[in-house]
């Protein structure tokens, strides 16, 4: 499927972003990837609330083959053939797919640090009000900080003698 055809097909739905994905496109709306256009087929995101509609249309789950086996992705279903000719109803199905994708994304969000179990060291640091990341970050920053070379040190490295530095600094003081 080409880009122009997909944009025209989703015109009743609204603006979509097409991103190159595998051998086709990922179709994005409202910041979520809700569909794919692969191998001359459109595949929508489904979840427990929307899968019954696809089952009623006998829409097959997305699947692909690897070297060893066939992988079936139950969270994506092929769009029923009749919807390719009905952009208005396709828009309704697309809105449901966007909502399913948003629900799936909400489930994937990582837990907050307070919800995660802590090790003994993390508990002790949190009791003291210091996080391990902050402590290790400052230690790394100190270790990584390059030493500054003052003019005296630079001169001593060049001449190899501290006495030479003192003589040079005295003569510059007298000259001014």
Describe the protein in words.
With 176 residues, the protein is α+β, with helices and mostly antiparallel strands. The protein has 7 helices and 6 strands; from the N terminus they run αββββαββααααα. It has helices spanning 3-9, 51-56, 87-108, 120-128, 132-144, 151-159, 162-175, and strands at 17-21, 24-29, 32-38, 41-45, 61-65, 70-78. The protein is globular and about 40 Å long.
- The whole-angstrom Rg is 32 Å
Distance between the termini: 81 Å
* Helix percentage: 40-55%
- Helix/strand/pairing class, anyone? alpha+beta
Question: What's the order of the H and E elements?
Answer: HEEEEHEEHHHHH
Give the overall silhouette: globular
Please, what is the average pLDDT?
78
For the largest sheet, list the strands in their spatial order.
1-2-3-4-6-5
Q: How would you characterize the largest beta sheet?
A: 6 strands, antiparallel
Tell me the number of helical segments per DSSP (H or I, 4 or more residues long). 7
| Count of individual beta strands | 6
Strand content: 15-25%
- The unreliable regions are 132-136
Describe this protein with a few key phrases.
globular, alpha+beta, 176 residues, 21% strand
